[in-house]
Protein backbone atom coordinates (compact mmCIF):
# COMPACT_ATOMS: atom_id res chain seq x y z
CA UNK A 1 0.00 0.00 0.00
CA UNK A 2 1.26 3.51 -0.76
CA UNK A 3 1.62 6.40 1.63
CA UNK A 4 -1.33 8.06 -0.11
CA UNK A 5 -3.52 4.98 0.46
CA UNK A 6 -2.38 4.83 4.08
CA UNK A 7 -3.27 8.50 4.51
CA UNK A 8 -6.71 8.00 2.93
CA UNK A 9 -7.36 5.04 5.24
CA UNK A 10 -6.36 7.08 8.29
CA UNK A 11 -8.64 9.94 7.23
CA UNK A 12 -11.54 7.51 6.71
CA UNK A 13 -10.97 6.02 10.17
CA UNK A 14 -10.89 9.45 11.77
CA UNK A 15 -14.34 10.33 10.43
CA UNK A 16 -15.74 8.52 13.46
CA UNK A 17 -13.10 9.71 15.95
CA UNK A 18 -13.57 12.19 18.77
CA UNK A 19 -12.78 15.71 17.51
CA UNK A 20 -10.92 16.34 20.77
CA UNK A 21 -8.49 13.53 19.98
CA UNK A 22 -7.74 14.10 16.29
CA UNK A 23 -7.05 17.13 14.09
CA UNK A 24 -8.64 15.28 11.16
CA UNK A 25 -11.77 14.48 13.16
CA UNK A 26 -11.94 18.08 14.36
CA UNK A 27 -11.65 19.40 10.80
CA UNK A 28 -14.27 16.96 9.51
CA UNK A 29 -16.63 17.90 12.36
CA UNK A 30 -16.61 21.48 11.08
CA UNK A 31 -18.21 20.36 7.84
CA UNK A 32 -17.34 20.20 4.16
CA UNK A 33 -17.19 23.97 3.77
CA UNK A 34 -14.42 24.34 6.35
CA UNK A 35 -12.57 21.39 4.83
CA UNK A 36 -12.77 23.07 1.42
CA UNK A 37 -11.51 26.34 2.89
CA UNK A 38 -8.49 24.59 4.43
CA UNK A 39 -7.74 22.83 1.13
CA UNK A 40 -7.87 26.18 -0.66
CA UNK A 41 -5.43 27.71 1.82
CA UNK A 42 -2.99 24.84 1.40
CA UNK A 43 -3.31 24.88 -2.39
CA UNK A 44 -2.42 28.59 -2.43
CA UNK A 45 0.59 27.93 -0.21
CA UNK A 46 1.75 25.21 -2.64
CA UNK A 47 1.33 27.61 -5.56
CA UNK A 48 3.42 30.24 -3.79
CA UNK A 49 6.23 27.75 -3.19
CA UNK A 50 6.05 26.57 -6.82
CA UNK A 51 6.50 30.16 -7.98
CA UNK A 52 9.39 30.71 -5.57
CA UNK A 53 11.11 27.56 -6.82
CA UNK A 54 11.95 26.08 -3.40
CA UNK A 55 11.68 22.30 -4.01
CA UNK A 56 11.69 21.29 -0.35
CA UNK A 57 9.03 23.82 0.65
CA UNK A 58 6.96 22.88 -2.40
CA UNK A 59 7.12 19.19 -1.44
CA UNK A 60 6.01 20.08 2.08
CA UNK A 61 3.14 22.30 0.92
CA UNK A 62 2.11 19.74 -1.72
CA UNK A 63 1.87 17.11 1.02
CA UNK A 64 -0.32 19.48 3.05
CA UNK A 65 -2.49 20.13 -0.01
CA UNK A 66 -2.89 16.40 -0.72
CA UNK A 67 -3.87 15.75 2.89
CA UNK A 68 -6.44 18.54 2.88
CA UNK A 69 -7.75 17.47 -0.56
CA UNK A 70 -8.41 13.98 0.80
CA UNK A 71 -10.06 15.41 3.93
CA UNK A 72 -12.28 17.66 1.80
CA UNK A 73 -13.28 14.71 -0.38
CA UNK A 74 -13.91 12.52 2.68
CA UNK A 75 -16.23 15.21 4.02
CA UNK A 76 -18.36 14.62 0.92
CA UNK A 77 -17.91 10.82 0.96
CA UNK A 78 -15.61 10.80 -2.06
CA UNK A 79 -12.88 8.22 -1.50
CA UNK A 80 -9.40 7.87 -2.93
CA UNK A 81 -10.76 4.83 -4.79
CA UNK A 82 -13.40 7.09 -6.40
CA UNK A 83 -10.67 9.52 -7.49
CA UNK A 84 -8.49 6.69 -8.81
CA UNK A 85 -11.43 5.31 -10.79
CA UNK A 86 -11.95 8.69 -12.41
CA UNK A 87 -8.25 8.95 -13.24
CA UNK A 88 -8.34 5.44 -14.76
CA UNK A 89 -11.37 6.39 -16.85
CA UNK A 90 -9.51 9.41 -18.17
CA UNK A 91 -6.46 7.37 -19.17
CA UNK A 92 -8.41 6.00 -22.12
CA UNK A 93 -8.36 9.37 -23.88
CA UNK A 94 -5.94 12.20 -24.41
CA UNK A 95 -6.09 15.28 -22.23
CA UNK A 96 -7.03 17.39 -25.23
CA UNK A 97 -9.92 15.08 -26.14
CA UNK A 98 -11.10 15.01 -22.51
CA UNK A 99 -11.09 18.82 -22.33
CA UNK A 100 -12.96 19.08 -25.65
CA UNK A 101 -15.66 16.71 -24.37
CA UNK A 102 -16.54 19.02 -21.47
Notes on the structure:
The chain is mainly alpha-helical. It has a single domain, classed as MazG-like (Helix Hairpins, Orthogonal Bundle), CATH 1.10.287. Helix content is 76%, strand content 0%. The protein is built from 6 helices and no strands. It has helices spanning 3-14, 23-29, 32-52, 55-75, 80-90, 95-100. The longest helix is centred in the middle third of the chain and has 21 residues, at 32-52. 20% of the residues are buried. Pathway: Amino-acid biosynthesis; L-histidine biosynthesis; L-histidine from 5-phospho-alpha-D-ribose 1-diphosphate: step 2/9. It is an enzyme of class 3 (hydrolase). It is found in: Cytoplasm. Pfam families: PRA-PH. Its EC number is 3.6.1.31.
In short:
By secondary structure, the protein is mostly helical. It has helices at 3-14, 23-29, 32-52, 55-75, 80-90, 95-100. It starts with a helix and ends with a helix.
Amino acid sequence: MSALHDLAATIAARKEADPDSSWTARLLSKGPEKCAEKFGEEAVEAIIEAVKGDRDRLASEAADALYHLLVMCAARDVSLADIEAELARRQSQSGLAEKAAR
